[in-house]
Structures are given as C-alpha cells and as structure tokens.
Batch of 4 targets.
Target 1
Amino acid sequence: MLLGKELEWRHLRYFMAVATELNFRKAAESLFISQPGLSRQIKQLEDVLGLALFERSTRKVALTAAGNYLMEEVGFMGNHMESVVQQLKQIAQGNLGELRIGFLGSAMQNIIPELLLKLQELHPGIQTALTELSNRAQLDQLLHDKLDLGFVRMARVPADLKMQPVFEDTFSLVVPEGHGGKPFRNLNQFQDTGFILFAQEYSPYYYDTVMSICEDAGFTPKVAHKSVHAQTIFTLVANGMGVAIVPTSFQEGFKLNVDFIPLDHLPQRAVLSAVWKKSNRSPVLKHGLELLFGEDKV
C-alpha cells in the first residue's frame, strides 16, 4: 500500500522497530532482516521525507524531534487500524461493532450497568469491552484510539476530547459503624483523625475536592492512607484506621461495618462525566451517547 509516490507501510514498520529499540542490530533481528537492509530502508524513508529521523553516532542512536513526532503519529495510526480490524471482525460475526469503555470504579455503581442494560435491550448487536482505569489513563487511551468512551471525574480535558456530565453526587463522611458513640456535629471534630483518600494520581480532581471540603471546615486533613479502591478504603475505615470522604452513591453495593454521614449541605459535588474523542466516527459510540444523553444532545 503506497502512502505517497515512494513511501510504503513497510517503511513505517521498519521505522517503528528502530524507534522502539534505538538499536539497528536489535531492530533488524526483531524484523528478521539484515542490518544493512534495514539501514537502507530507513535512509530511503528519510530521503523521501527530506529530513533526518535519527541521530546516529558510534555509541548510540537517538530520535530527532521529527522522529519523535513520527513515532507518536505512527503509533496512533497503528492503534486506529487495530480498532478498525476489531470492528470489522465484529461486523463479520453479525454484530454492529464493539464499544470500548473505560471507567472509574464509581461509574460501576449505576451509570455503566444502566447503559449496558439499555444497549442489550435496544442494540443487542453491540458488544462491549470494559476496562477500569484512572482518569489520566482513560484520556491517554481515548486520544490514542484505544477506547471509545470514558467515565471520569475531571474539571477539564484536552481540546480533542468532549466531556459531558452524566451524574452529580453529594459527598458523605465514612466512619466506623457507630463511630464510637460520638454524635456528629461538624467536620472539624475529625481534624485530628487520619483520613483515607483515593490516591491523588488516580483522580487529582477528586483529591483536590476532598482537600477543599476539609479546608472549608478550617483544617488540612492528615492523610493516613491512600488507595484506588473503595473496598480497601471502607475496610480500613471499618478497622479504625481513619475516616474517609467519598461520593454518597458509594454506599450502594458494599456491606461493611461503616456508617455514611451525609454532607449534602456542602457546595462541593462529585461530578461523573462521560468523555470521548470528537473525531471518533464509530457508529456504536453514537448509539451509546444517544442512550446516555438523548439523540438531540449528542
């Protein structure tokens, strides 16, 4: 397949091998071709493009700025082609295609189950693939065409993506069952207690929101533990290792020895949003978005 008068897919495949290994000998071995033959192919590619993709010396091989850019773009093309092939296989089997969904664990409380039930009822020919990922990992996979739809808690996303809220929740304080017989008055009575939070790298927006809730109450929380799983957080609270602040809907689906104290008087809200790539033309994504928001709002 020609990409231009002289540029072919094999040139890009050879380029990616060298860009990954940064070693012509190892790249040639992985491609099962000779090292001189690989060098000629890379030189031909550079001649066609009219620029250098690698900086070569007797000691090392490094990508130029142009080489780094090409590596990113070829990686994107490869991911997109992989997606196209997967969709073709689904269509060949009589399905409409596959909807690849990334999500934070909290989306599994209600949003995703409801979406899956609607898809099954109205579009049984759509297959789904679900992957639990952090906010940042979802954005990366959406941008590189490895996901079609994500569910995140973020204030903003890159310009190539579109984000729309799907669920707004209040927060609750999670304490050990019975919380020592002490009545709840206000949040600052826990200022000397350790807090168990979702890790900042998992959801920076959520982490910052919880910090702001405590700061509005007049203190900075003492972070005792961090986790990326609600189950772990609740288990730690139940065992007296600290308290936590989580979206109120988290109390559904867990049977642990903890109490939820509503903080619905606070202005902060836990907003779960759907996010997708604007240029994604998948018909199955369109069906999914219509079920989430309605045909006139997509």
Target 2
Amino acid sequence: MTRTTTRTSAALAAAGVAALLLGACSTTSDASTGTDAAPGSSAEATTRTVESEFGEVTLPTEPQAALGMYTTDLDMLITLGVPLAQSQPIRDDGYSTFPSFFDQEALEGITPFTNFPEFSYESILAAQPDLIVNGLGYDESIGTKLAEIAPTYSFNGFDGSDWRVKFEALAEALGRTAEHDAWTERYQAKVDDIRARLDEAGLDPVVGSVGVDGDQVTVSCYGTPCLVFDDLGLDITPLSDGEGATLSFEEVGQLDGIDAVFTSMAPEDDGSFGDAFEALAGNAVWQQLPFVTQGQIFTSDLEMIYGSPSGQYAFLEEVEKALLP
C-alpha cells in the first residue's frame, strides 16, 4: 500500500469537519455517560480501556456502528461480528464497491465511499461511527484526526509483519476472541486439507509472488501470498528472500525455476483480470519461461494481498484452485 497522507483541505478540517464534530458530540455525549463500572457496582461497563500500539484507548464495550478506516479493517470487523456503520470506506484505483470475497450478507445495505488514497474525513464523520478501527497507523496523524470523530483503535497493519498478530490483538481489545478463534480454526482446517491433497498428489511446486512495476519485474513476499505459501509448506523461490528482487526485463531469465507464479491486480467490472504481464509480451526470454509456456500464471484480486481474514482465506482458495485443479 502506498503510504499516502490525507489531502483533505485545511478549510474542510477547520470548518466542515469541526461543525460536524460539534453535532456528533452533542449526539453522543448523553449516550456515553456510563464508563467502567465501579468495584462492586451492578451496572455494566459501557466502555473498556485497552492497550494499543499507540498507548491506551477507551472503546465502547458494545459498539453498534463500527467503521473500518481501510477495507482490511472493515473485514476484521465483519469477521469479529461487530455491528457496522451504514457507510464504509473502499479504495479507489479501479474499485467501485467492496471486494467480492468479503461477506456480502454482512455488507447488505451498507454504502461504500472512496477513502483511499485520499482520505474523506467528512464521509467518515457522516457515517456516525461509535468506533473506528484504523490499520493505517504508519501515519499517527490519521489516528489523531479519527479520535476527534469517535473512539479509535489504531495499529500499523502495513509494516510487513504478519497481520494476524494485529488481528488477534484487536479481537482481544474488542472482547471478540471467540470469533477470532473460530476464523483461525476454519482457516487452519482448510490449510491442512490442501496440504494433505498436495501430498497425496505428490505435488511440491516452487512458487513465487511476481509482478510488473513500470519497466521492472518484482518478486517479493509482501502481504498474504507468502504467508499462505508458508502455511502450506510450499517451496518459495529464493528471489523472495529478504527485501525480494527487482529485475530488469533483460534479467527475467532469473525467474527460471519457478513452477507457478501468483500475481495480483484490480479486477475489471465483470470480475475478470487483464494481462498483468502485458509489458513482457514481446520479451523472448519471458515467453520461454516454463510457467509462461505451461500457463502457470495465476491472477487474483489486489485487495487479497493486504492482510485480512477474508483476503487470506480467499487467496488460500486461489492457491488451491491453481495447484489442485
């Protein structure tokens, strides 16, 4: 994900957002008079104070209108069974609605609004959330702005670490560990099933996450692909080690030895994908690579690679379809 800071105008921040904040505060102040129950009190606590990557934060114990700052945050909320605000963010760059692999039943009646790469704090405020989950913690100013709208739990979901660690911490903060554990068990059961079938078929391919960036070919382990490959015990190309590899078009012969290539891009309106490697159509070395000649290039939705429960499970299914057709 490109680390893009908000370009919301100063006038909006100072005038429009401030005015909406006043309205929001007047709406919620009466409803949030209860706090953590005093010792011995029979009243149920309406808030809880938890630790986050950025210090303590006080959250509602039973949010009724949660919002995810990015689509991965929304997916975590859905998976944890947290009631959602009636409008939720999506990214630009070819998307006009929520990712198709999300729980569409949970999204029924919810309106999307574009919130990346430019952030729409006005739209967030208009959604009237009572909780915001913000995985864009790489920019602390984002969390600061969001906290003025509603209680906000922030973390850096794009620091290259395993997103599941952040997901587990979020589940604990929201008191939703049972839902977290249910997803984990479902995912692991699918992993075990695929691995057993690969063993039965005697399949042990070398795999790689490969893409084109301008006039270069990239090989990396960013996001969910290599997490899934590793969970399945697949042999990942050594080009992915460390920071990965960036190859010129003249160096694509180094990809020889990869049996199956996985790449990602935004889907067309009908759900289909273009040719992610169109720029290499006239490259003779590329055209002779075994995974090209044997049709072992598999394209999936770009949003799957940014760690979230549905994204990782959906990519796992993509690998299943590719290797066990």
Target 3
Amino acid sequence: MAFRVRTITAREHTAFNATRPAVSFLQTPAWAAVKREWGSESLGWFDDLGRLVGAGLVLYRRLPGTKMSLAYLPEGPVIDWASDDLGGWLDPMVDHLKRSGAFAVRIGSTAVTRTWSAATIKAAIADPGITRLSDAPPDTVNDVAARTSSRLRRLGWRPPKDGQGGFAAGQPRWVFQVPLAGKDEDQLLKGMNQLWRRNIKKAARAGVVVTQGGVEDLPDFYRVYVETAARDQFIPRPFSYFPVMFEALLAEDKDRIRLYLAHHEGDLVASTLWIRVGAHAWYSYGASATAKREVRGSNAVQWRMVTDALAAGCTVYDLRGITDTVDANDPQLGLIQFKVGTGGEAVEYLGEWDLPLHRLLYKAFDVYMSRRG
C-alpha cells in the first residue's frame, strides 16, 4: 500500500494517539512544547482511503551556519513496524523531510527485540564470565523485530554510533519495565526482591508519607534534584525546564504528569516525576536527599508510583534507561541492580536508526553535538 505523508495538526495527532493502547510521551504533540529549542512538526500517514493510520512528532535541530536540520522522531514514528513493506511506511516520510531541509533523519522504534527477567539478570551478574546482558541468553526473543532490523539495514538505515550501547544514541535502547497486566498489589510486592520489600515496609514504619504535589512544589523537588546531581555527579537540568514540562504536558492531558513527594517528619527525603500516556507509565525524574536515607524514601515513592500506575489501568510501569552492563567493576551496575529489585524485566528496543541524506553535513553535525556535550 502506498501511504501519503503530510503535516497534521496537534489536535489530529493527539486524537490519533488516543486510539492506541500506548504511545511514547516523546511522540505526543505536547513534547514539542517542552523541546522549545527544536523546531517541530506533526506528521500523519494516510492510506488510499484517506484514513489516518500513523503519526509522528518530528523535532528539527538546525546545523549552525546552514539552512538544513536533523529531523528526529524520538521513540517514533507510530507506524506498523512489523510491516513486510517497511519502505512503504518510511520512504514517503523521508521524501517529506527532504523537502523540509533535513540532512539526516533519526527514528526510534520501541518494538521489543529481547527481554531478560530479574532472575536471569541476577544470574548474569553472578557469572564472572558475563559482562554484558546482551551476552546472557534472553528469556524472550522477538523474531519479527529481528526481521525489521534487517529490513531497516537494507533500506540504508544504520544505528547511530553503531556498536555503542546504553545512552550513546540519544534515547535509551535498553530500559527496565515492570509488567502490571493481570497483577494486583500483593502480586507486585511479592515479585520484588527481599531488600525492596523490606525497605518499603521500613519506610512505612518510619512514618514516610508520600503525597502528590503540583507545579507549586517544583522548587522543593528541584532543591533535592540538584543535591542528587551533585552526589551522583551528573549535570542537572535548569529549573526552568520543569515548569515548562508541566505546563506543556498538562495542557494536553490533565493527568499526563504527576509530581510525588516523600516526607519524613516534615523533611523532603525523595521526589519523583511520573508520566502516563494510555496504559504506559514512566518514572521520568527522581531525586533523593542525602540526609535520612535510612528511612528509604526512594523505595516508598517508587512503590506509590507503581500502585498508582496499576490503579490508572496501566499495563507497564517503566523505569526508563539502563545500560546492558552486568560487570561488577562497571559503575553503571548499581543502576540495574536498583531497578532489578522491582522484579521487572530488562527490555531491549529496536532502538534508534539514522538515515544520512547529506553525509558531510551528517558528520559535521555529529562533531557539533559531541562538542556541546
């Protein structure tokens, strides 16, 4: 089938997303309002009968000194990634983006290629002969996604910075998720490891109270977030990013984003941001105070977000990115160990793919972005 791709309105895009069980929050029109430093456009795929059958949010980043841009669809577009005729979906999009002045296109599929259970991850960590989760036998393999990967390569698409895992390519290819479908709170709690269950109970006994806040509470969140950044040695976003994020996402859906705060005897000990689109909920940002870590506020606030996701009808609670390391000497190991305690699973996406349209400019842009850090 030949598809026609054209610009659609934010209202059309939002209405299409609402027909899907779940769509990445990075593929909502509201996300364009968060990423104000990028240009943006909503695209629609129309079939022979004029029906809207696919959609995507395109973010444009201009290469300085030129009139050309990288066209980026984070965790999108929302199309039939299992189609035997993937070119029929992607080629008209590429033609449209060429006309818009793109020197390269980056897409990102959330089609799942492989998964590893918590038990499999623990066994891999304990095995000195395995340093990468990708070297451990997965619990599930999606053959359809493997065929899609082959089709993308035949069409000329390549993973950015091929061979590097984790966060190198932009949006994470590896994520950690807790499946919620068909489970109740007791089952979810039993699925967590002993340390997580003990810490959740410890927080409750210590009197940790988790509440849902609003935009007016963002300064409190930010104070602890900056403290976390200094302790964990990452560069925090500026405060201005978070009110913009709240304003944009809440304008699209009044329950798109939530702020959670965990207090102990009046002291803020942990705070997190939760995002939901359809049946998928994400842990987006988290912060914890250095003081009173023994009351386990971080575990308490995570448990509240899990149970709230379940109550909202979600089928997935997503703790977002991990790397695929299981090497005891890798400092990133602590991240996967924390998340694996929830009893969920590591998920490998088909991930991000680039199609250079002007190879010299594509290389120049890569150098420019690496220098920006």
Target 4
Amino acid sequence: MLEMRPDCERCGADLPANAPGAFICSFECTFCVSCAEALDDRCPNCGGELMDRPTRAGKALAANPASAERRFRA
C-alpha cells in the first residue's frame, strides 16, 4: 500500500492524500507538480520516472491513513 507521503521532498509543499497534484517514483519519492516538471519527470534519488500519484479519500483514507512523516529537509 502506498505511504501517501504528505509533502514534496524538494520544496516542502503540502500534498494531501485526497488531492491530486503529487508525483511519485517506484520507491514512493514524492514531488509536487512544479518540482516534477523542473526535474523533467525523473526522480533525483533513483532516476526513476515520476508518475501521477493516485488519490485516497473517504472510507479508504479513514481506514488507511496517509503517512505523517515529512521528507523535506530545509
């Protein structure tokens, strides 16, 4: 199951699990739209392709909450 990380690893922007606008690689490195575009849709950590992260909402989100661990390091 996806962790649904709460922030962009590059700029720290909030990325709620129930909203579109997050991009992930196969290791779940997570970036916002702007950063994914700046990175040419390539993960700077593993070199993998960044893809749209699906959303999780309603009962699915309540039963399987998103991660609260932030990855952005200022």
